[in-house]
Amino acid sequence: MLEFVDSAAQAVSRITDGATVLIGGFGNAGQPMELIDALMDSGATGLTVVNNNAGQADAGLALLIKERRVAKIICSFPRQSDSWHFDEAYRAGEIELELVPQGNLAERMRAAGAGIGGFFSPTGYGTQLAEGKEVREIDGKHYVLESPIRGDFALIKAYAADPAGNLVYRKTARNFGPVMATAAAHTIVQVDEVLEESLNPEHVVTPGIYVDTVVGIPTESGVKEREERAALAAGQPKPCLATKTAAELAAEK
């Protein structure tokens, strides 16, 4: 049942030790920082985290890794100049890494959401990433069998949610959010705006059927989005979808 809660702490309160948590974001874009901070405060540990990378600097996912709350991470880009907390934990043997090519990562979650038992991908064939996996030749090309990635929970960030839990996102902050929402047993979303009216169905990115918990947390990026859309709309008598405010989108039925 869909619920709207008042705080990030309430939103993540069901997450328990050992859970598999899908966390949206491409770097900092679309990363649900406030939900991650609340997860940190909740004390949950032994987590398996699925994310595009392994945390950056001293914020968000990086802090979960720093505090050794993450037992395993499944990601496509574990190392960069400011991934020092992951580097330290990995070199100490205190975190397990499953490296997955980025396209396969997204498709494995999409497969989980679509109820697909597996799929063949050419990515990784002939490399260590294919070790222990079934390979098959199809029409003269070699493929590797990949399995779905399912989550107990998903933490994602969207721009706005309507009363039915339908979501729209802000630009590239969409990234992994839609596929993670479908692949989790319980999807938790932080949004900048909770709308009073329903979104136009043609504008919905993630249908509310995939959303379980919504918390409104205004952020700097959400304020910027509203300002940008208002400025663009002011110069266009008939603003297109990309220039409309969330309230305008909600009013169109």
Automatic annotation (TrEMBL):
Matching SUPFAM superfamilies: NagB/RpiA/CoA transferase-like
Keyword Repeat: no
Pfam families cross-referenced by the UniProt entry: CoA_trans
Record-linked InterPro entries: 3-oxoacid_CoA-transf_A (IPR012792), CoA_trans_fam_I (IPR004165), CoA_transf_BS (IPR004163), NagB/RpiA_transferase-like (IPR037171)
Domain of life (superkingdom): Bacteria
NCBIfam families documented for this protein: pcaI_scoA_fam
Homology family: Belongs to the 3-oxoacid CoA-transferase subunit A family.
Protein name as it appears in the record: 3-oxoacid CoA-transferase subunit A
Organism: Citricoccus alkalitolerans
Taxonomic placement: Bacteria, Bacillati, Actinomycetota, Actinomycetes, Micrococcales
